[in-house]
Design goal:
124 residues, mainly alpha, Arc Repressor Mutant, subunit A, 6 helices, 2 strands, 63% helix, 10% strand
């Protein structure tokens, strides 16, 4: 499911704490965004249409909650990024980070550990 950068701000708030009213979401958003209340409500409605969030009515209020786990979003977004930018080639992604010297020694150790875990799973 494609979530825009703006919609992700709403999701970040809901992943941290939910269910929340629209007012609660507005209050918890980064103030530097300087969004109007109407903008936030429009984004909430888009997320509802995409069925990424749901709601329950409690009295006169609507309480919103995520229907997609953050880990699910991260996996889908990562796959989409690798597909779009690197034509699905994960080696190219890692090579790009290595060439730009973005990988720390800790990153390299963690990558080696992940590769070893994958090798062990495939060997079973």
């Amino acid at each position: 499911m494609k979530i825009s950068d703006s919609e992700k701000y709403i999701m970040d708030v809901l992943w941290k704490s939910s269910p929340l009213t629209a007012k609660d979401i507005i209050d918890k958003l980064d103030k530097s965004l300087e969004w109007q209340d109407k903008t936030v409500k429009t984004l909430i409605n888009r997320l509802l249409k995409k069925e990424v969030i749901g709601f329950e009515k409690q009295g006169r209020q609507y309480l919103y909650f995520p229907q997609m786990a953050e880990s699910e979003y991260v996996e889908e977004a990562s796959d989409s990024f690798v597909e779009r930018v690197f034509k699905g080639n994960v080696k190219s992604l890692i090579a790009a980070f290595a060439k730009s010297e973005k990988l720390s020694q800790d990153d390299i150790k963690e990558l080696k550990s992940l590769v070893n875990q994958l090798d062990n799973k495939k060997g079973e």
